[in-house]
Design a protein that fits this description.
The protein is mainly alpha-helical. It contains 7 helices and no strands. The chain has helices at residues 4-33, 39-47, 54-66, 70-92, 98-106, 114-118, 134-137. Helix 1 (4-33) packs antiparallel against helix 2 (39-47) and helix 1 (4-33) packs across helix 3 (54-66).
């Protein structure tokens, strides 16, 4: 990877892959712990994202049932950081500096309240089927 664009693309791909995995596992957590999904329902959900191996889906299901809300807390916090970053970029425009943004977070000048969002009045857990394309919703029955 001597090409700077290739390295940049590889980093972007890794970031997108991690983001997608956090999202999928968070939605799966909601399905299992809030909607009561069985292993078969969780496997059907994972199949929509190309995860088809029975041993892999069983391991993911086991891990999520043993560690409730583990991915959810990370994903909610991640989304809060993204929102804050976008807000700062919009506010500061060309003066936005990513390194400075991270330094302020580490200095605790900026506070993230992801747990407050989860437990705020009126918050409800989404039905993971809501993210599916319209033509897929009827193809998979979760309940």
């Amino acid at each position: 990877m001597n090409d700077p664009d290739s390295a940049k693309n590889a980093v972007r791909f890794a970031w997108l892959n991690r983001s997608m995995n956090l999202c999928i596992y968070s939605l799966l957590d909601v399905g299992i712990h809030y909607h009561g999904w069985t292993p078969a329902q969780a496997a059907r959900f994972l199949k929509l994202f190309g995860i088809r191996d029975a041993a892999v889906t069983a391991e993911i299901y086991r891990y999520i049932t043993e560690t409730p809300a583990n991915y959810l807390k990370y994903y909610v916090g991640y989304l809060n950081f993204l929102d804050l970053k976008e807000e700062q970029q919009s506010l500061l425009g060309e003066n936005f500096d990513l390194k400075s943004f991270h330094q302020k977070i580490h200095e605790r000048e900026i506070v993230i309240a992801s747990e407050a969002a989860v437990f705020s009045p009126g918050f409800c857990l989404p039905d993971p089927r809501a993210i599916l394309p319209e033509n897929s919703r009827n193809a998979v029955t979760f309940f």
